[in-house]
Give the backbone structure.
Amino acid sequence: MLDIYTIIFLALAVFIFVRLRSVLGQRTGRERPPYDPYSRDTARPPQPAADNVVSLPERNTASPGAPQPPAEADDGEAPKYRWEGVAPEGSAVAAALDEVARLEPDFDAKHFLSGAKAAYEMIVTAFANGDRRALKDLLSKEVYDNFAAAITDRESRGETMESRFVAISRADLEQAVVQAATAQLTVRFVSQLISATRGRDGSVVDGSADTVVDVTDVWTFARELGTRNPNWKLVATEAAQ
């Protein structure tokens, strides 16, 4: 048998449930899903719709046969030249870049030059430090063998080399060739460098430990296009005058 206190608590519980239901509402099965900031389908959180807002019909919902509005004019500018700032329009270099882009549509010449600058600095620094492992991943076998031989010769004389970049002021695409799906891109680097070679006693035997010199190098990078390996390797070097 229920006592008076149990009846009072039951009545209070029912009252609270009814009040919460009136304030929070109830699920109807048509609620918006919670906003996911990482979802590609939701560029921004859904905005609540106001009762006095009426959506305008889209232009392409006009009835069949109805006159269509004229296409909006563009800003009057011609399409941007794809290799602007990299290769002159109509040049042999531009034609080769077009072929690279045909085989690899995502190719970005400016991104390549940025990567070439980073590789240039890494290779020069690794050579000065005698870091054969780093060089092996960045050079073709022939170039690596030449670099490794120079490092071995330097070590046999008890010499060490110091190189420090001050800046790489330019990296210009000078030549581009595509043969049998292999691209070779030649870059002219202009840099400011401090470089010195020290003998066994620590004295400077070549270069200068505190003088900045201008250095121009012409390097060729190659890569087989259409493969999963995205890395370009250095296949030829030339010290330009």
Confidence is low (pLDDT under 50) at residues 14-73.
